Amino acid sequence: MNESANHLITPLSPEFLVNPLPTYAYLRANQPVSPVALPDGGRAWLVTRYDDVRKGLSDPRLSNDQTRLPVSTPFDALPAAVRPAIVGDVQNLDPPDHTRIRRLLAPAFSAQAAERLRPRLVALAGELIDSFGERPQVDLVAEYAAPFAGRSLAEICGIPADQHEHFQSLANAVVTAIHGGTPDALVTPALELYEYIETLCAERETHTGEDLLSVLVREHKDGQLSRPELTSTIFGLLNAGQEGTANLIGNGLHLLLTHPAELARLQADPQLLPSAVEEFARYTAPLDLPIFRSSEKDTQFAGTAVPAHEPIMFSLLSAGHDESRFDKPAQLDIGRADNHHLAFGRGTHFCPGAPLARVQVQVAIGELLARTGSALRLAVAADQIVPRTSVVTRAVAALPCLIS
Fold it and tell me: How many structural domains are present in the chain?
């Protein structure tokens, strides 16, 4: 690769997303703030060094407001009347609105709340493992990671048990359309999920409880949330909240099954599980390229001039593999010390669900390893595990495994 080729990098293309690490390594060494091409022909700026990503994520000059950017998104084909009620979730907002809504969500996703949920999460993991029955082979993405993340979030939100499957099918359809379809393909599943959310909110208005949806509906009735803010916040939770966790569980299991020495190390010392989860997040960055940021004024990153209003992308995956920050970053080390990765973001928009996600992944992987022991192994060769190429997330599409 030479410098002129950098202008042709398309970081949202399937070809790039299959394995971006070699390109990231080149950019960190040669052009840490690089102009890149977007699928719609527009230009963005890709930031790849750890220190620059860390500073950028915390930079108060940068906005997360996607409506300010002249770029296409998967939600462009939605009817204008409902678009704000779907895409205006907390991670797309700037202070003070972001601060106000985040404060309402904080109690449900605190570390203390996550620990209180641990016993129920352990029971849920057991139920899913029991559902494998006597089958010798299972797909640990479709049959374990995804339903564990979806059902645990559904319970937090107070979605009735007999609706869990329906909720997951709606959310999965939206995720599939975002990652592999066109804006037109997203319209139907997004509107169906939005209508389901409206139904849930209407039910909470007459039959309230202590679940998260009830709390948010009461805040709406008290004037703390507008109706579009209410529905878009729930829409974001039901999609990002389950997908990110499912991806980290699947990625973590994939890493362990393709690094047998680290798997044996964890099985011998389960106390390493919390640090292992942090290493999985650093190594794979389930959310590599988060929401576009932009500046009202021309700005500088690492000596590179970035024009006002042009999209800026911060690679969390590249930051996690920066040789200047992490010792032997290409090596998986579940006991890695000083692992201050950026996989959950940083600053004002640090992932509000990170404490819960950490506990969910610890429980899901810990319980599976405890129940299956040395019997757990891949059912196919490692090079047959296919990554799911996505404009947002990093994950394996399926993880067929033998459990007996």
Answer: 1
